[in-house]
Every structure is written in structure tokens, then in C-alpha cells.
């Protein structure tokens, strides 16, 4: 017997890629359980599937930075007292450095991060928690089918009391702009290009000492890097990343703030026009700002 639950959850996360740098991604998760009926005449109560399996996936994979552990680009990994730091070298030779509590990472034994590489790890992690009558589990990961402009961004929300405080987690997000009541492809393309594989850092979190020290130690040009740091209730989060893959904004990066930021940028360029922007944060949720 197969039991299925589609759209069980969305994994919103980021991963390191030698060509793209820090990639924000959102994968929709469908599951199917294969097994015999239990004493309730169920393979597994839908309630348990939706809470327990979702929780396992959320705990182990969601809102984390996924790192391809077998990649030669991972040039440093050190752990001390629950704080882990990594340095990753991009094809461009630019470096990405993060230091954060252990829980902010997911290490995958592969040379790169893709659905094909992460899927077996999710499957085996969930399977370990299944009751005996569940003999197998099929998991499908899929990106949302988007037929318009979208971007991949990564960020951290230091004021969030949950996992969104992690300094590098991200989303693959649609963007819709209306100018004077009409969908405006030009502005949508502008945002798609500007925020393709971008780290959105807040000016308030800039830490120049962090980037200067890191750049000195690694013999790279400090002018080319931003350092961001903050302490939230899970601990200390630090990121040094190339300016070339970052966009600095003058506010937090909640989706409400991003929608307002986009509106202000467009309004400055075209003060006479009326704008409405629908900024998504991952799949099926977001914020709308309008003039
Ligand atoms: N009003 C807002 N709420 C939240 C924002 C935001 O910008 N505005 N942002 C976040 C986080 O960035 C987070 O990444 C969003 O995560 P989400 O997937 O919604 O959170 P959960 O994992 O808790 O939800 P699931 O249904 O389990 O996926 C949070 N809130």
C-alpha cells in the first residue's frame, strides 16, 4: 500500500556552489510511504506524517546552509564549542566564510548540492524514524514551476526568534511588478538580474573588523568583501562574502522590507508612475507594497 502527502513542506535553504556562490533555494517536498496497514488500518496517520516527517525535514534541512563536504572548494572547516566555521573558494577564487552555531549547517557528502545529492540523505534521515510497518519511503523534491521572473536570494533575520535568524538561508522567489496597473516585465527582469544568486545584507549588520581580519589572514583584498555579524538567541553569526555576490540594503530583509525597498527604488527612477510589487519569500507567500 502507498500513502502519499503532496506539498508536505518547503525546504527554504541556501547552498554553496563554486560557480554561483551562495544560492538561495526553495524545494517543495512530496512524500509517499510504502508499507502494511497498522492496527488503525493506516500506513501512518496523516497527522503524524504532517507533523513528525515535516519536523524531521525542517530540523535537519530547512533554513540551513548546505555544504558539499567532498568539494575541494571547501578549504577550511573548524568546530569549537558548538560554533562551526567554514571557508569556501569559488571558481572566481573569491572566498565565502561563515561562522555560526552547528545547527545552521547541513553537510552533504557530495561534490555539489543538487536534488539528486540531497534526496538520499533526506530519505535515509526520515526512514530512521519510521515505525516497522513502513517499509520504504519515496520523497520527491521539486522547485516551484515558475513561468515568470524570479530570483534566488539568501539572508538572515537577526530579530527572528526562530530559524530565520540564521545568517545564510534563502529562497527561490517570484517577483511581480505592476506599473500603472499593467504587469511590467522590464522591472521584473531588473529585479531578476539584480538579485540572481545574491546575498542580501543589512547595513546595520556590517562588521568591517571581521572582514578586514579575515582578508588579512587569507591574503585577499579587503575592499572586495563585506563582513556581517550579529548575535541572536541561537548564538553568534558571522559571514564574510564577496561584494560581487551581495547587495547591501538600508533595512532588515524581511519580505515586507524587501517589497518596500523595491518600491522605493522604482519610485525614485519613475516618480510619476504608480507601482505595486508582489515580492514572494519562497513558495506561496510574500508581501505586497504599492504607491
Ligand atoms: N511576516 C514575515 N514573517 C516571516 C518572514 C518575513 O519576512 N515576514 N520571514 C521569515 C523567514 O525568513 C523564513 O525563511 C520564512 O520561513 P517559513 O518557511 O515561512 O517558516 P517556517 O519554516 O516556520 O514555515 P514552514 O511552513 O514550516 O515552511 C519567517 N517569518
Indicate the percent of residues in helices.
Answer: 10-25%
Structural class assignment: alpha+beta
How much β-strand is present in the residues? 35-45%
Number of helices: 5
* CATH homology-level superfamily: 6-pyruvoyl tetrahydropterin synthase/QueD
CATH architecture: 2-Layer Sandwich
Low-confidence stretches: none
Shape: globular
Count of extended strands = 17
Under the CATH scheme, which class? Answer: Alpha Beta
Number of self-contained structural domains: 1
Q: Main β-sheet: number of strands, strand sense, barrel status?
A: 7 strands, mixed
Overall pLDDT confidence: 98
- CATH overall fold name: Tetrahydropterin Synthase, Chain A
The secondary-structure element order is: EEHEEEEEHEEEEHEHEEEHEE
In short:
The chain is an alpha+beta fold and 291 residues long. It contains five helices and 17 strands.
Comma- or semicolon-separated keywords:
6-carboxytetrahydropterin synthase activity, alpha+beta, 6-carboxy-5,6,7,8-tetrahydropterin synthase, 5-stranded mixed β-sheet, binds ligand LPXRUNBV, 291 residues, 6-PTP_synth/QueD, 7-stranded mixed β-sheet, globular
Explain this structure to me?
There is one protein chain. With 291 residues, the chain is an alpha+beta fold. The protein has a single domain (2-290), classed as 6-pyruvoyl tetrahydropterin synthase/QueD (Tetrahydropterin Synthase, Chain A, 2-Layer Sandwich). The protein has 5 helices and 17 strands. The protein has helices at residues 46-61, 115-127, 185-194, 208-218, 255-269; strands spanning 2-17, 21-35, 65-68, 74-80, 83-89, 95-101, 105-108, 134-143, 150-155, 169-179, 182-183, 198-202, 225-232, 235-242, 246-249, 275-280, 286-290. The strands form 3 sheets. Strands 9, 10, 11, 12, 15, 16 and 17 form a 7-stranded mixed β-sheet that branches. A 5-stranded mixed β-sheet has the order 7-3-1-2-8. A 5-stranded antiparallel β-sheet has the order 4-5-6-14-13, with helices on one face. The longest helix is centred in the N-terminal third of the chain and has 16 residues, at 46-61. The chain is globular and about 65 Å long. The protein starts with a strand and ends with a strand. The relative contact order is 0.16. The model has no long low-confidence stretch (mean pLDDT 98). The ligand Nc1nc2c(c(=O)[nH]1)N=C([C@H](O)[C@H](O)COP(=O)(O)OP(=O)(O)OP(=O)(O)O)CN2 binds next to strand 1 and helix 5. Residues 9-10, 12, 58, 62-63, 157, 160, 162, 164, 169, 254-256, 281-282 line the site of the ligand Nc1nc2c(c(=O)[nH]1)N=C([C@H](O)[C@H](O)COP(=O)(O)OP(=O)(O)OP(=O)(O)O)CN2. Pfam families: PTPS. InterPro entries: 6-PTP_synth/QueD, 6-PTP_synth/QueD_sf.
